[in-house]
Write a sequence for this structure.
């Protein structure tokens, strides 16, 4: 886009930008550091390609380094502080609002920054009352995942496990190594730990702020031993169907309501 085109784009009714968020962090010995960013970019590109070409929705350059303190014990991981990520999103978001864009979708594929981006989105919305801000997570709300993945992996396959390994096998098998460690699953999920109080867990209603090294030597949390490109293809289609439909519904609406400039 040239700047005159960007200017016209911002002023279109319902103008929407989607900002992919990923991370540069360990994904076990078999997946690359860029896994989350790779997923966000590739799924988003296919979703947007599936939409009518005349819809006023565009993709921003990806934020490829995110908030990943839980993985810092593993070389290769880079993490921004929460304050710095807040500043980045706020500064860019404020500039986009001044241009006239009406909606900004934060399309995030890194589970470790879901809550942070939700908080940042709320602060940005206060500072830019004329622009709607929608913080989304790639894997959230995709009901069909429950039909494709075992319950155990849906609940406990938190990192570099069955879903992520299978999806990468479909998107780019050259980026997937041969190792399939599952020490995180064995050490944490299959071993009874009487010290965990009833009702508490790693994730869920009463969670723990865990660090990856608490759970796994390899960095994998879950079990990817049954990962296949066939499963990855089904997971990709489930993600594409879900998000294409959501983006289409959003673009055909005037929601969310915001203050007019």
């Amino acid at each position: 886009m040239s700047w005159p085109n960007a200017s016209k784009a911002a002023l279109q009714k319902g103008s929407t930008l989607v900002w992919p968020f990923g991370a540069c962090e360990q994904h076990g010995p078999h997946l690359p550091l860029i896994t989350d960013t790779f997923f966000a970019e590739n799924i988003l590109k296919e979703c947007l390609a599936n939409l009518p070409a005349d819809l006023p929705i565009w993709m921003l350059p990806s934020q490829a380094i995110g908030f990943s303190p839980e993985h810092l014990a593993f070389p290769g991981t880079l993490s921004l502080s929460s304050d710095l990520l807040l500043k980045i999103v706020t500064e860019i978001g404020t500039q986009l609002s001044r241009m006239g864009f009406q909606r900004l979708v934060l399309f995030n594929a890194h589970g470790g920054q879901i809550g942070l981006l939700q908080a940042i989105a709320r602060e940005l919305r206060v500072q830019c009352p004329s622009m709607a801000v929608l913080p989304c997570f790639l894997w959230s709300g995709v009901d069909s995942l429950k039909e494709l993945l075992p319950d155990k992996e849906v609940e406990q396959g938190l990192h570099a496990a069955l879903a992520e390994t299978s999806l990468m096998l479909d998107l780019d098998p050259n980026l997937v190594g041969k190792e399939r460690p599952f020490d995180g699953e064995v050490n944490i999920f299959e071993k009874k730990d009487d010290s965990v109080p009833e009702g508490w867990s790693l994730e869920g209603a009463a969670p723990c702020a865990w660090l990856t090294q608490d759970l796994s030597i390899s960095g994998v949390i879950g079990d990817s031993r049954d990962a296949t490109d066939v499963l990855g293809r089904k997971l990709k289609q489930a993600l594409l169907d879900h998000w294409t439909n959501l983006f289409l519904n959003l673009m055909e609406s005037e929601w969310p309501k915001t203050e007019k400039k």
